Amino acid sequence: MSQPFNIDSSHPMPLYAQLERTIRFAIATGRLQAGEQLPTVRQLAVELCINANTVAKVYSELERAGLLETRRGVGTFVSNVSPEEDARENRERQLGTLVDRFVAEAGAHGFSVDDLIEHLQSRRKKEMRKNG
């Protein structure tokens, strides 16, 4: 991998969410290709100055999502994903990224998830009356 992943410790989004989003984006944009090896947990933790458990958690989540695969004693690699799965997962990933950013930014302003849900439900009702 030519350049390290970028993490901003001053951003309100948790570090693991930033790292997960960055790796997902690198895979979606082709910066990380199927079969390409990622840095070890320890290497990436040192490069990013974050806890190794954070990196391990992200790798584990992405492995559960089918984007990465760990080969015992060899390392962690980008898995092969079919174009149809990739398109669906990419759309879900984009929405997840937007929601993560929205929740983090709202949280930085003192709003809870319940506040957001209440406001979104109210907004939905207004939209339904306007369009219906």
In short:
This protein is mostly helical and 132 residues long. Helices cover 61% and strands 6% of the residues. A hairpin with a 3-residue loop joins β1 and β2.
Task: Give short descriptive properties of this protein.
132 residues; mainly alpha; 5 helices; 2 strands
Describe the protein's architecture and organization.
The protein is mainly α. It has a single domain (15-131), classed as Winged helix-like DNA-binding domain superfamily/Winged helix DNA-binding domain (Arc Repressor Mutant, subunit A). Helix content is 61%, strand content 6%. The chain has five helices and two strands, in the order αααββαα. The protein has helices at 15-28, 41-48, 52-64, 83-108, 113-131, and strands at 68-71, 75-78. The protein has a two-stranded antiparallel sheet with strand order 1-2. A hairpin with a 3-residue loop joins β1 and β2. α1 crosses α3 (52-64) and α1 (15-28) runs antiparallel to α4 (83-108). The chain is globular and about 55 Å long. The N and C termini lie far apart (51 Å). The mean pLDDT is 88.
State the CATH architecture.
Orthogonal Bundle
**Helix content, binned percent:** 55-70%
Q: CATH topology, what is it called?
A: Arc Repressor Mutant, subunit A
- How far is the N terminus from the C terminus? 51 Å
Overall spatial form:
globular
Number of domains: 1
Query: What do we call the CATH homologous superfamily?
Result: Winged helix-like DNA-binding domain superfamily/Winged helix DNA-binding domain
